[in-house]
Amino acid sequence: MFDTIEEGIGWIESIKRFGDKYDLYRMEIACKELGNPQDNLNIIHIAGTNGKGSTVSYLKHILLEQGYNVGTFTSPYIVNFNERITENHNDISNDDLLKYINKVKELYFKVLDDYDEVITFFELVTLISFMYFDDKNLDYVIYEVGLGGKLDATNVIKPMITAITSISFDHMAMLGDTIEEIALNKLGIVKEGIPLVTSVVDEELSQLFIDYSNNLNSELTVIKRENIEVIEYSSQTNFKYKNQEYSISMLGTHQVVNASLAIEIIHQLNKLKKSDVSLSNIKMGLVNTFWPGRFEMFGNIVIDGAHNVGGMNALRDSVKALFKGKYIKALYTSMVDKEYFDIIQILESFVDEVHFTQFDYPRCETADNLYNVSSHPRKFMHEDAIIALNELKDLKKNEILLVAGSLYFISLIRKNLK
Question: Which domains does the chain have, with CATH numbers?
Fold first, then answer.
C-alpha cells in the first residue's frame, strides 16, 4: 500500500502504456472483479481525432449550469495528473486518488496472478474513474476516448449517447492507414439503439457513418456546416447554430463546431428526456467554458496542442481568421511517432518563421530532425525548449508567438508562462 500520492502516481505511471494484446479482455475481467461499477453511470461517450476535450468541457459546463452534478474523464493532462478525473469544478483530490490507486494496485496483481494478464496504465486510470464516479453518485459522466474507440479501455461502458468530433490521420499504427479504417475504429463506440451525434462531414465518410449507425439502429445526427454561421471573432466568438445565437469564450474557428456539437448533444438528450436543460443554461455554459492548452493566449503568445494533421489545419484556420496582418513566429516540437513531415508542411504555410525545439521527454523528436524536414526560408533550431521560449517571447506589437505540438510540450510551456 502506498502512503503518499507521489508514491502512488509514480507507480501507476511506471506501468506500461500498451498491452501485448490490443483488446478489451483485460478491462472486462477487471470490471467484473470490481462489480462492474461503470454500469451504474449515466455516460456521454466522446470519440474523435481532435476536439474531444473541448467538447467534453462544453458539455460539462452546460450541465453544471443547469445544476447537475457532472464527472469528466479526459487525457492527457495539461496541469496535473488529477485533472484526468473531475467532479463538477474539482479535480479528484490527492486523498481520493491515492485511495483508488491502492485499490487498483491490489486488482492489478490479482488479475496478473489469476489470469496472467497485465493491466495497462490507461486501463488502470480508467478503472479508478469508474470506482470514483460510482461512489460519487453523479447525474452524468462524460468520457473522452483515449485512443481510437472500438478497443479503447473506455469502451466497456454503456452510454446514453455517443459523439464523434472529427476524423483525421493520427495513431495510424494502432488505428489503420486509411481514413475509412480510422473512422471505423472510432465508430466502434456506437452501441445498439444508442444515438450518435457527429460533426464529421467528410464526403468520403458520410455513407460509412449512415450505414454503420443504421446497422445498429442508432439515430444519426450530423452537425451540418450550413447550420453554423459565425457572426464575429473578438474577445468572444459569436455565432449562430440553427439560427439561434450563442457566444463562446474559447478562441479558434474550430471551437464553433465543437460548441455546436455540444449543443446538439444536449438537444438530443432533452429529446430523449434524459436531461432537461434550458436554452439560457446552454448559452451560459458555453460562455463559461475554458480548456487549457487549446488556443490559449498569454498576451501575444498562443499555445495550442495541435499534434496531428487535423489539429494543425484547425490551428491554421484560426490564426488566419484572428491574426490578419500579424507577423507569426512558431515554436514547434513533435513526438517521434507523429506524422510530423505533413504537419510541418501545414505549419510552414501560414507562419513567417519557424523555430524547432525539443524537451526532456522519452518520445520527443530531436530539434535537428525536425529542422532537417523543414523547407521554410526562415527556420531555426533550439536544443532547449525553455531557453527558446525565453528568447522568443519578447515580441513586438505586431508579432505573435505560436507554440504548438505535443500536449506534453504545451504542458511544459504553460507551466513556464504561468
Answer: 5-288 (3.40.1190.10), 296-417 (3.90.190.20)
